[in-house]
Amino acid sequence: MSAEWKCRFPAFLCTVIVLSGFCGNANGDEYIEYFSSVAGMEKLLAVEFEMLNDLQNYINSMQKQIDLLQSEVDAIRLDHQAAVDDVDGYLSNPVNAYRLIKRLQSDWSAFEESVRIDSSRTDFLSAMAANRRQVHFPSKEDVIGSAVALVRLQDTYKLEVAELASGVLNGIKYGPSMSWQDCFLLGHYLYEIQDFNHTVPWLRESMELLKNEEYDKDAVTLDFMETVVTYHQEMGDFQTALELTNYILSIDAQRDQLRDTKYYLERMLSDGVKTGLMHEIAPNRGDYHLSDDYKRYEQVCRGELQLTPTEERPLRCRYDSNNVPHRLLQPYKVEELHLDPRVVQIHDVISTHDMEAVKRLAQTRMSRSQVRNLNGSAASTANYRISKSAWFAYEESEHMQTMNRHMGDISGLNMASAEHLQVANYGIGGHYEPHFDFFTDNCTFKASEGNRLATGIFYLSDVAEGGGTAFPYLRLLVKPQRGSVLFWHNLHRSEEPDYRTRHAACPVLKGSKWIGNIWVRVRNQDRERPCGLLPDHEVSLEYKHLV
């Protein structure tokens, strides 16, 4: 595509970048990951605001043939205007976060390239270079990570592609719609990672949106659509390929090669041939995401699998001091969520002041959350846990000491055996698939410390949509409520694992989820939680084999 055409027709700039390769950080500094947490993305929004001002100055200096370039700027400014009143709310919308990352990773490089062809435009390029030194731009991994997160939300909550692209989440429109370029790039990224089943609907949505553009009948547009026909044909999606082929030919019937393609597609469909990438790459039979266990987890996240009214009837809410003397005048508000095993949510535990202070401290040292490996090797990142976290000794802050005291009062346990506080933030589609908090037989832990006896999750924020804590075997979904604590025991009194406590963090659909985790070990809990006279772990053994 010529430089002249790019200046005249910037709507195609994103596509040019995709087909010609991606640019990384110009300064070559170490990689900073954005998609796994909302925390830290405020810098991206701030630097893009500066970049918009720089680009606006450049546009004003040109005073000629800039209407289309101005339209690109205006479209992004609309997004920024939507973010002015509520930056956190804007960034916690997965569609907004994806589009921000995509723009900074690809669109702005395209703007640079269109400016670079004129040597008199060095002021803008110098400003862009300064902006790149000021903050790490998102990488291709960030864009792919955010794309995968959107697909995760799409699957978990059964969202229609058209609704998701229009900014509608669970029937509520939270923000601006995605452009046809946004949808195409998303489909392209999914194609690159061979997720062809999800590639198809996003490319189809991209073409439906492109058909509504004023330039949808231009020759270059039709050439581009032919490229997308090839995508569908190679994947084996002959029906969509044929529909798009017929659309192109209805506008320009003189495309002889495309007529041959139409004949081929019609023959493949009439003969019922199943070939192409979608059919050649068979799903892995051992893939956990195809298991009944994973399907049960998704059902709980959607609220489709839950306790019956009869099972809920014995549950109650009450004030409880837990026999702590100084709690007699200020007892906890305890809501029973499940009786065996006992899972409770205690409301209005920590103050707004404490929560905000803990989050501010955590933002200074957060890194991608890791998981322990079953083979005993060092912990590492994994796609089934997308978040950022930081660890703190309680002595580092009076606010964290307050959380420690609450955990002791709620649990009645010896907090000298508690692990350090973990503060975590979940980003675009952030989640943690079903897991146990206790260490399994394949994991090692110091015998002197013992296994993880109890878990306390401090909810440091509300979550508008999704982000619940799911217990698949208990058919229980707990909605994060700011200031509350979710508590349960991971082990039976015999200190054997309670496999019924397998739980997960459902993907965050809308919002920024902040939590503080406190785990208490078995060590020195003889008086606080003595063993029973009889074994009590058999009741949960049947769940061990469901994984």
TrEMBL record:
Top-level taxon: Eukaryota
Cofactor entry: L-ascorbate
Coiled-coil stretches: 52-79
GO cellular component term of the entry, any: endoplasmic reticulum lumen
Signal peptide: 1-28
Domain Fe2OG dioxygenase: 417-522
Main subcellular localisation: endoplasmic reticulum
Keywords in alphabetical order: Coiled coil, Dioxygenase, Endoplasmic reticulum, Glycoprotein, Iron, Metal-binding, Oxidoreductase, Signal, Vitamin C
Subcellular location: Endoplasmic reticulum lumen
Gene Ontology molecular functions: iron ion binding; L-ascorbic acid binding; procollagen-proline 4-dioxygenase activity
UniProt keyword ATP-binding present: no
EC assignment: 1.14.11.2
PANTHER family in alphabetical order: PROLYL 4-HYDROXYLASE ALPHA SUBUNIT, PROLYL 4-HYDROXYLASE SUBUNIT ALPHA-2
Summary of the function given for this chain in its UniProt record: Catalyzes the post-translational formation of 4-hydroxyproline in -Xaa-Pro-Gly- sequences in collagens and other proteins.
Family listed: Belongs to the P4HA family.
Protein name: procollagen-proline 4-dioxygenase
Species, as recorded: Ceratitis capitata
